[in-house]
Design brief:
The protein is built from twelve helices and 13 strands. With 344 residues, the protein is α/β, with parallel strands linked by helices. Helix 6 packs parallel to helix 7 and helix 11 crosses helix 12. The longest helix has 21 residues. The two termini are 23 Å apart.
Length: 344
């Protein structure tokens, strides 16, 4: 998704200014995770395996930091079923910073090694201001996983303008030794072209990304179960056979929804937004509204029997509403608690 600073005094963030460079990680792993010694597992393989066995799973998307604060994640909060993988958002600030530093100094790239021995992790890589030099610097990091995103803005001097171009280059350079995820857009590219979306053209671009080497798709923001189902059916009809993971956001207060709406151009239908506005001053009601909406949308996709088994939560570093959704999915026996242990 997008890197957003909600300016909410979230206690899951701590001050970066007190930290030395390079970035100091702030992850609290479970007992089981602490015993693991993973070797940079391939997320595409995990997604394909779980999808083939019809096992529901989820991942979480986090930001390396919000403005001046670094993210802290306590994985114990997600027990009894841990995320299968973590992705770390790219931000416009990262695109600006690599012009005065190097790719290995970008915050989300720095955090990947700290996660990878305990849980599968992938950085986002945005096309915004991307050059061949920086792309080759990324390859030199020799990471196993990446999510390629076009980004919310374009710069006239950037060398790559379409995600499929980066996917093609990475696949040619690394062969099968890299897992490449890409975004799929049920609402279209709303942040770049809010009006007159051409859904057939959007599917064509998605197929181009898959045809040149993308291993799986993560759908981007959409509050409509009908549109998500239609998008997946259109993708399958176009010959896209790779796994598709549902991307879900669960805003926990009205201001968060407004920021997402402004940045992404994705919004609730007018009648539903009017309903939300009536409760905008009650954070608990707003949170519950989006928890129930998210669960309904997930259930609708499951009921459509489209072969979708993965969910990716765009957390914006706020986990309470996501945990509420996870509890509801477990209560419906969609997500199943491991019988033996909590390993992923």
């Amino acid at each position: 998704m997008h890197s957003l600073d909600l300016e909410t005094g979230n206690t899951s963030l701590r001050n970066v200014s007190q930290l030395p460079e390079p970035i100091q990680p702030c992850f609290n792993f479970t007992e089981t995770q602490q015993k693991l010694s993973l070797a940079d597992p391939n997320i595409a393989d995990l997604v394909a395996s779980k999808s083939a066995s019809k096992e529901f799973f989820y991942g979480i998307e986090i930001m390396a930091h919000n403005e001046s604060k670094v993210t802290c994640v306590d994985f114990n909060l997600f027990l009894p079923l841990l995320p299968t993988f973590v992705s770390i958002v790219w931000s416009k600030q990262f695109s600006e910073s690599i012009h005065t530093s190097t790719m290995n100094q970008v915050a989300n790239m720095q955090l990947i090694p700290y996660l990878n021995s305990r849980i599968s992790a992938m950085p986002h890589l945005s096309l915004y201001r991307m050059s061949q030099k920086y792309l080759d610097e990324f390859l030199a990091l020799n990471l196993t996983n990446v999510l390629v995103v076009r980004g919310d803005q374009l710069d006239k001097d950037q060398e790559y303008h379409y995600s499929y171009q980066v996917v093609e280059y990475l696949r040619r350079a690394r062969g099968d030794n890299i897992s490449i995820a890409v975004g799929g857009y049920p609402e279209g590219y709303t942040s770049l072209a809010p009006e007159n979306q051409d859904k057939d053209l959007n599917i064509k671009y998605l197929k181009m990304k898959v045809d040149v080497g993308a291993n799986f798709v993560i759908t981007q923001l959409c509050y409509s179960g009908d549109k998500i189902v239609e998008f997946i059916r259109d993708a399958r009809s176009a010959g896209i056979r790779v796994p598709i993971v549902l991307g879900m956001v669960v805003p926990d207060f009205f201001g968060a929804y407004q920021i997402i709406e402004r940045v992404t151009g994705v919004r609730l239908p007018p009648e539903e937004r009017e309903e939300l506005e009536k409760m905008q001053d009650d954070n608990d009601k707003v949170k519950d509204y989006f928890v129930q909406l998210t669960v309904r949308n997930i259930q609708q996709v499951i009921d459509a029997d489209l072969g979708i088994y993965g969910i990716q939560f765009f957390t914006m570093n706020r986990f309470e509403s996501v945990l509420d959704v996870l509890r509801e999915l477990r209560s419906r026996n969609i997500l199943k608690t491991p019988a033996a242990d909590h390993s992923v």
